[in-house]
Design goal:
With about 425 residues, the protein is an alpha/beta fold. Helices cover about 35% and strands about 30% of the residues. The strands form two sheets. Strands 3, 4, 5, 10, 11, 12, 13, 14 and 15 form a nine-stranded mixed sheet that branches. Strands 1, 2, 6, 7, 8, 9 and 16 form a seven-stranded mixed sheet that branches. The structure holds flavin-adenine dinucleotide.
Length: about 425
């Protein structure tokens, strides 16, 4: 039996960030995950926007992790084959395994890493007992459950799942390469759907190292024949859905396999359970098209590790009332509510055919066009595409694409 204060189950973005923060705070913790290094997986590939980056920086590890990303200081916004704006951006592009492994590199050696799966968790208001796949047992005052989408422990612990929206959106990731030339003209690009009937909110293209990644989002059922067509003939299907995209990108090839991931929106309810706190996707999922998953991860972990765990360890016991304070935290609740609202608003503005949503789409189109025209005059309007998951900075003088990350791109004033 190993004894610790905090047993973190799951070493994805949430669990690894928690391990790094607790280790740096001198709190006794172990991190349990089956993989020594996080394997390749299609999840978030871009941390972007002032708010999301600031949330990461609050964990204390953001700065060194973001230095491993490819920075894009300008994002082109386009629709109907027209370039609307060359917006300053704060995009840090990095594949998910590189991101998580960079976070894991920030975990102090004092945090023990156990390469195994947690099989069962027995909870009590005093100590928790975690049984592992390697037959070891860990005794902890608190379990931080950061096991993402995994269902086994949820069932074993009797945690109820409330599905808010099944297959809310589907994310598709792939590489693109310019055809017959060396590079694309844009540093990064967000291209919005041409018609609501395409059920595509947008496609975003962004550099990761020497690759140009594409994330395409669609609102369709997972058994939709359109997805079968996309798998069979990716370039043709994409071109048919967004025929004027190539006016901005030039001709390109799809140069990797497609990763296709549907996402259900759900919230897990562990209130009433002593000794366990849920964070990240283990608590609730978010819509990738709205780009808020990492806001939730960083907010959960920052509040838990900076505010609640030090308080809880200062007194005896770990009953459900203590843990309830974390779920009721106003900063966490505001972030969860904002992410949920954005998931539905973004879907409505992309698909809605009523006069209201049609007007909303045109209002955004006009706002970006005006902003793009005003930018050379000083960018004074600074209308933020705030439903996009990445917002522009207030500076009108952007650097164009760059793979090196300067201090100013990380500082809060950038
Ligand atoms: C396709 C896609 C695109 C996305 N795009 C964006 C985006 O653009 N912007 C954004 O902000 N968010 C995005 N997100 C959301 C974001 O990626 C997630 O919210 C985030 O990765 C969740 O991290 P996590 O640590 O909670 O879960 P995970 O990364 O899933 O980590 C869970 C960990 O738990 C481990 N584990 C599971 N079971 C056990 C067990 N029994 N014992 C021990 N370990 C276990 C797993 O091995 C894994 O390491 C996207 C998500 C998807 C799916």
């Amino acid at each position: 039996m190993r004894y610790t204060d905090i047993a973190i189950i799951g070493g994805g973005l949430s669990g690894s960030t928690a391990a790094a923060m607790l280790g740096r705070a001198g709190i006794s913790a172990v991190l349990i995950d089956p993989h020594e290094r996080y394997p390749a997986d299609f999840r978030v590939e871009k941390l972007s926007g002032h708010v999301q980056v600031e949330r990461f920086l609050k964990t204390g590890i953001g700065e060194s992790v973001l230095r491993r990303a490819t920075f894009a200081g300008e994002n082109w916004i386009a629709r109907f084959g027209r370039l609307l704006d060359k917006a300053p951006s704060r995009q840090f592009n990095i594949l998910y395994d590189s991101l998580v492994n960079a976070v894991r590199d920030e975990i102090p050696t004092a945090v023990e890493r156990i390469c195994a799966k947690a099989i069962t968790v027995e909870t009590s208001p005093e100590r928790q007992r975690v049984t592992l796949s390697n037959d070891e047992t860990v005794s902890a005052r608190l379990v931080v459950l950061a096991n993402g989408l995994n269902v086994g422990l949820r069932h074993q612990l009797g945690i109820a799942r409330n599905i808010i929206s099944a297959c809310h959106s589907i994310s598709i990731g792939f590489d693109v390469a310019p055809a017959g030339r060396n590079s694309f003209d844009f540093p990064a690009l967000t291209y919005f759907s041409e018609r609501p009937s395409d059920r595509i909110p947008y496609i975003t293209l962004f550099p990761v190292g020497s690759r140009m990644r594409a994330n395409l989002f669609v609102y369709r059922g997972f058994d939709d024949p359109w997805l079968r067509e996309l798998r069979r003939a990716p370039a043709e299907t994409l071109n048919a859905a967004l025929p004027r995209l190539k006016r901005i990108t030039g001709t390109f090839d799809i140069s990797s396999e497609l990763k296709i991931r549907p996402v259900d929106l759900y919230v897990n309810d562990a209130s009433g359970l002593p000794g366990v706190a849920l964070v990240g996707d283990a608590f609730a999922t978010s819509c990738p098209a709205a780009g808020t998953g990492c806001d939730k991860v960083f907010t959960d972990v920052e509040r838990l590790c900076n505010v609640y765990i030090p308080q809880w360890l200062a007194s005896d016991g770990m009953d459900a009332d203590k843990i309830a304070a974390f779920y009721a935290d106003p900063v966490k609740r505001a972030c969860d509510e904002w992410a949920a609202a954005k998931a539905f608003a973004f879907r409505s503005v992309s698909l809605g055919t009523s006069p209201y949503w049609t007007a909303q789409r045109w209002a955004r189109f006009i706002a970006w066009s005006v902003q793009g025209l005003a930018r050379p005059l000083g960018g004074v309007l600074n209308i933020e595409p705030n439903f996009l998951g990445h917002s522009s900075s207030s500076s009108s003088s952007s650097s164009s694409s760059s793979s090196s990350i300067s201090s100013s791109s990380l500082s809060s004033s950038a």
